[in-house]
Amino acid sequence: MMDDERRAKDYTPEQYFKSSDEMADLFADIPEALSNTIAIAEMCNFGFENTDHVLPDFETPKDLSIDEYLEQQANVGLKKIFPSGGDNLSTYQKRLDDEIKSSENRFLLVIFLLLQILFNGLGSKISLLVPAEDLDLDP
Q1: Per-residue model confidence as pLDDT tens for the chain (139 residues)
Q2: Are 20 and 35 in contact (CB under 8 A)?
Q3: What are the Cα distances from residue 62, in Å, to 68, 69, 72, 76, 94?
């Protein structure tokens, strides 16, 4: 974090990702340093057995499934953004319904739900659709 007193504050013009040519010039006197870097990188290469997203299990209120709870909380957030209804509410309601039904968005929706639970536990207030409202953007 920027306010962390322990973070590095003294930066030089040399602190950037150098190209291969720049690294070769920098280590011209010890070329084995470059070949060792590649050997070390090759030793670190491994594959994950499970590349699926692993989402934590957590309790939902009123015996709702995670999908039902996600939908409920997203709709609560939508009503907060459009408390008086109107044309915009119906447009966004359809869009929200489509996004909730899309399996591609499920991981992100669960992350938003976990953030909501975390922030509510800390005494803060957040809802699924608040990020769009706070940033004044139309996702």
Answers
A1: 667 788 777 788 888 999 999 999 999 999 898 889 888 888 886 776 766 666 677 677 888 887 788 888 888 888 888 888 777 888 888 888 888 777 666 777 777 777 777 776 655 554 445 444 444 445 4
A2: no
A3: 10, 9, 11, 16, 25
The C-alpha atoms of residue 84 and residue 89 are separated, in whole angstroms, by 9
Give one word for 87, left, alpha or beta, with left for phi > 0 and alpha for psi -120 to 50: alpha
Put simply, whether the predicted model's pTM sits higher than 0.70 gets the answer no
The burial class, CB within 10 Å (0-12 / 13-18 / 19+), for 82 is: middle
Domain map (residue ranges) of the chain: 61-134
